Every structure is written in structure tokens, then in C-alpha cells.
Amino acid sequence: MFLVEPNQRGDKAYIRSQITIKRNKLPVEQRRLWSEAACKKAMAFIESHSVGAFMVYVSFRSELDLSGLIEWGWRTGREVIAPRCIAADRSMELYTLRSWDDLIPGAYGIMEPNPNTAQLFKDNCELGVVFVPGLAFDLQGGRLGYGGGYYDRFAESFQNNASKPYWLGIAFETQLIDKVPLEGHDLKMDGLITEKNMYLV
Question: What pLDDT digit, counting tens, does each position of 59-86 carry?
């Protein structure tokens, strides 16, 4: 676990840079093995909670790779949902991902659903789990994202829903820090999955 210096506790830019460096230094093969281990824990969570539809991200650069989880979702007949980022208002549109052919480079160079071929997912109430990317997490549900606020805004759409999905961070254990600096609007996780453990808050 990365211990943030007391004088840097509230400095999100500092924490982001330090964790990005740590994650980028992980060997490619290590990231692959750890990604597979984390995906297996995510599969077990989905099965134990009888989830039919779950939301993923498509990994970028040194992020934990969810490819194994995505392909398992297809094989088991579950609905795999992926977001498309709308840079103009920093919102997200959700699409059902049916194959890798549904993806094209998006606003930030990240692979996203192609709105011309992928099917729009309209009923957010059916989502059982949202797997959330991030740079740093703590064990109290804190998450430090990339600064765009996309997931915070997306979570607001569930405020009046009777049923809400599980919000689970998924990252390498090396991205754990002792305390994420949170503001009032920041989305809190219900748990965190790493290659080593499943931490529920």
C-alpha cells in the first residue's frame, strides 16, 4: 500500500502522478497475470450475486485489463455494457458490447463502442455491477479517477432509482493508498477487486 506523505494528503495531482508511475513500471507479463486473477474474482462476484448485466471499461495503457471478464460475459450469455464518453458535457452513453468489432477509438484515444454498430443500452436499472477504473483506491470506498468526473456524473443518474448497481473499483494492489482525498461529489465504491483480494466496504 502506498502511504501518502502527510503534507501531500490532499494533493490529487501528486497522488495521480505517483500511482501512474508505479503502475507504468509493472512488467507487461505481470500486468497480464494480475489482470487475469482480478477478472476471476470479478466473475465469482457476478455469479454469486446472480448478475445478468454488468458494465466494464476497455483498458487503456497500463490499466488492469478486463478482456478476460468481457469475453467470459459473452460466453455465459450475460449483457456486457461499455461506456462511450461524450467530451462536450463529460457524460457517458452506454452500449451493449457484443464483440471486439463493436469498438472504435473514442474521444481520448480509448477504444469505445461504435454508436453506428453497437446497440444503445437504455435501461440503467438492469445494471447489476459497474466495474470502475481509477488511478488510486483506498479500503474505505475512496477512488481517485483521472479527473474528468465521468463516473461521478453517471452515478448521479441512479440517485432516484430504487435499485442501484454495485460500484466496484478494480485495480492492481499496487494502486492501493492509505487514504484517497475525497470531495462531496466524489463517487464512493462499494468495494474493490485486486489480483489479491476482494475488499467490500
Answer: 999 999 999 999 999 999 999 999 999 9
Residues 152 and 192: beta-carbon distance below 8 Å: no
Pick the closest to residue 127 from 173, 170, 95, 98 (CA basis).
95
Nearest to 171 by CA among 147, 139, 124: 139
By the 8 A CB rule, do 48 and 78 touch? no
Listed residue (112, 94, 93) closest to 102, CA to CA: 112
Taking residue 57's Cβ as centre, other Cβ atoms within 10 Å add up to: 21
Torsion of CA 158, 160, 164, 166, to 10 degrees: 50
CA neighbor of 66 nearest in space, from 181, 171, 192, 178: 171
Average the pLDDT over 127-136 and give the result.
96
* pTM for this predicted structure: 0.93
Mean pLDDT of 19-45: 97
